[in-house]
UniProtKB/TrEMBL annotation:
NCBIfam families, per the entry: NDP-sugDHase
Xref: InterPro entries: 6-PGluconate_DH-like_C_sf, NAD(P)-bd_dom_sf, UDP-Glc/GDP-Man, UDP-Glc/GDP-Man_DH_C, UDP-Glc/GDP-Man_DH_C_sf, UDP-Glc/GDP-Man_DH_dimer, UDP-Glc/GDP-Man_DH_N, UDP_ManNAc/GlcNAc_DH
Gene3D superfamilies (alphabetical): NAD(P)-binding Rossmann-like Domain
Pfam families: UDPG_MGDP_dh (PF00984), UDPG_MGDP_dh_C (PF03720), UDPG_MGDP_dh_N (PF03721)
GO molecular function, one term: oxidoreductase activity, acting on the CH-OH group of donors, NAD or NADP as acceptor
Record has Signal as a keyword: no
Protein's name according to its UniProt entry: Nucleotide sugar dehydrogenase
Amino acid sequence: MPVSPDFTYDVVVVGGCGHVGLPLAVAFASRGLKVAIHDIDARAVELVSSGRLPFREDGAEEVLAKAIADDKLYVTTDANVLSEAEAVVVVIGTPVDEHLNPDPRAVKRALLSSMSHFRDGQLLVLRSTVYPGVTRGVEHMFEESGVNVDVAFCPERIAEGKAMEELFSLPQIVSGRTTRARDRAASLFKNLTDSTVELEPEEAELAKLFTNTWRYIKFAAANQFYIMANDHGLDFDKIRKALAYDYPRAADMPGAGLAAGPCLFKDTMQLAAFTDNSFQLGHAAMLVNEGLPLYIVSQLERTHDLSTKTVGILGMAFKGESDDIRSSLSYKLKRILEFRAGDVLCTDPYVTVDPTLKPLETVLEQSDILILAAPHRAYRDLVTDKPVADVWNFLGRGSTL
Ligand SMILES: NC(=O)c1ccc[n+]([C@@H]2O[C@H](COP(=O)([O-])OP(=O)(O)OC[C@H]3O[C@@H](n4cnc5c(N)ncnc54)[C@H](O)[C@@H]3O)[C@@H](O)[C@H]2O)c1
């Protein structure tokens, strides 16, 4: 698809150096689109401009390097680039605050500060996960400004680490108030996938929050079952595998484990705020998932005098094979152990942003007890004679504590 003569770029991704913005930008570039990234993080912009990823994302670095070399991707901190693209995709972070309140103004604030760069005829795609009603608010903002853009909301549903596969395989939810906005957004995403599903904007906003909350509740159910079984000296993972064996209705029951990260918890809390904090199931899921680190420590205290022991935490990222420590429960585990254990040592093969981490060998050697917090493949063949708490049953030695 050639770029419209009015524009230099087919698409600019705002927040395009982030965990979901960057894979999206390189995916578009890999399909031949002329793509720009605008991001306020100067360090990330420099890194990405040189063809390097600021974080782990399987299969993305080669595609990024090629896009830069082929002159298909331009990366800048200069917001002027917004006026040069036919489609502006916004995928900035939308975290909840320390009191678990969403910030429904985050996306509007970012757009307000770059309002002067928008031009008549552009397509604006909101892709951040938003509090319901944000799309409507953005539409109003543009109506009031007098700039005539088509606004669409097309939520991102990839899992970190699988973006370069899932961007091309997952159906794309497309929403827009007008047929033109929806059609333009659909044709943009048809560059990645033929499978699109249309919803009204308010439906699409809820679809994204329901998707993440559903997953979070499933993890909580498994973690609650784990605690029940474990309190009776029984191995949840053994029970789970037996009940799911050749039994499709239970095939989606997840294993137990630390359910964390930058999305599932905060999107469940966004939904809770949306229902005036009367989302009992969501809050219950939060208590179970966020409570698991404390449960693990309390269980270990029944058999070990932790106050005299050094505890080693294996894996500080929020999930296996990731280097992302945002909202990682490994750090909650660490904080609990800092006042309940003699000493705490932490390690992770991928995390690069925490200078306190130790090499795996040091942690294995100096710890009395180990806790497997993130199931990285590097731990699959762990050799140690120390006790290992492994609620995941990742090592295949049972999950009981
Ligand atoms: N991480 C995931 O797996 C995932 C999956 C699906 C959806 N989402 C949603 O996508 C959104 C982004 O998440 P993320 O994990 O990529 O966040 P992130 O923090 O990794 O990336 C956000 C990027 O936006 C940039 N940014 C912030 N404000 C900006 C502004 N005003 N102008 C330009 N750039 C700006 C930041 O510098 C950063 O590079 C969130 O709404 C999140 O809920 C995330």
